[in-house]
Amino acid sequence: MKKNEGKNNSTTKNITTMGQVEIPRPKDPDIHSLIIIGQIEGHIVLPPKNKTTKYEHIIPQLVAIEQSENIRGLLVILNTVGGDIEAGLAIAEILKSISKPTVSLVLGGGHSIGVPIAVAAHKSIIADTATMTIHPIRLSGMLIGVPQTFEYMEKMQDRVVKFVSAHSQVTEERFRALMYQTGELVRDVGTVLIGEQAVREEIIDQVGGLQDAISCLHKMIEDGEKK
């Protein structure tokens, strides 16, 4: 009885602190799954009602994955509305520097700063019904009142554009054009790409699902071991 109580307490703690529950594990856990959902939380703590992924939880996991001798590949599953730009770029930067094979899978949505995270993996896959919103960086509810603030926003946006272009096949010019497109989003500028459209724009590598992502990751692991 006490053993079960301890297990239940451990599960409750995982749900509270990390948003995770204990799941069945394969006998040979050579692939690690990392889930990024909701809104990416950075330096500012979001309200409790927001579903968030905290970057201070993600980065230590990525470091541990890189150092682990048992993990041979990483699967990143994304269903995010975006969030903190600095935090999202930090996750993307460390993800792209991992030496082990990585595959990203966009399910539901990979919007805003979720785009750099998706393309940071060695191979990116998007579900047929998943969406990606490409739009300029903005300060919600704030007025840019001085030139220095505007210049800072421009530099931050350049970082996002250059990162996406460097880690996918889309050009900087085309990505900017998607950012500033008018007439598609109500009272806003930007573009919504659905599944195959993200592939046609050469942002994401292919359309697929979980089986495709895992098969791709296993092949990358095997090819790497043959070298």
Describe the structure.
This protein has 227 residues and is of the alpha/beta class. The protein is built from eight helices and eight strands; from the N terminus they run H-E-E-H-E-H-E-H-E-E-H-H-E-H-E-H. It has helices spanning 2-18, 55-67, 85-96, 114-120, 147-166, 172-179, 196-200, 210-226; strands at residues 31-41, 52-54, 73-83, 102-110, 123-126, 131-134, 191-194, 206-207. It has a six-stranded parallel β-sheet, with helices on both faces. Helix 2 packs parallel to helix 3 and helix 3 runs parallel beside helix 4 (114-120).
Q: What is the topology?
A:
Elements: H1 2-18, E1 31-41, E2 52-54, H2 55-67, E3 73-83, H3 85-96, E4 102-110, H4 114-120, E5 123-126, E6 131-134, H5 147-166, H6 172-179, E7 191-194, H7 196-200, E8 206-207, H8 210-226
Parallel strand pairs: 1-2, 1-3, 3-4, 4-5, 5-8
Antiparallel strand pairs: 6-7
Helix pairs in contact: 2-3, 3-4
How far the N terminus sits from the C terminus, by CA atoms, comes to: 51 Å
Largest sheet: 6 strands, parallel
| Low-pLDDT segments, ≥5 res | none
Secondary structure: helix percent: 40-55%
Tally of helical runs: 8
Tell me the radius of gyration: 19 Å
CATH topology group? 2-enoyl-CoA Hydratase, Chain A, domain 1
How many domains would you count in the coordinates?
1
| H-E string | HEEHEHEHEEHHEHEH
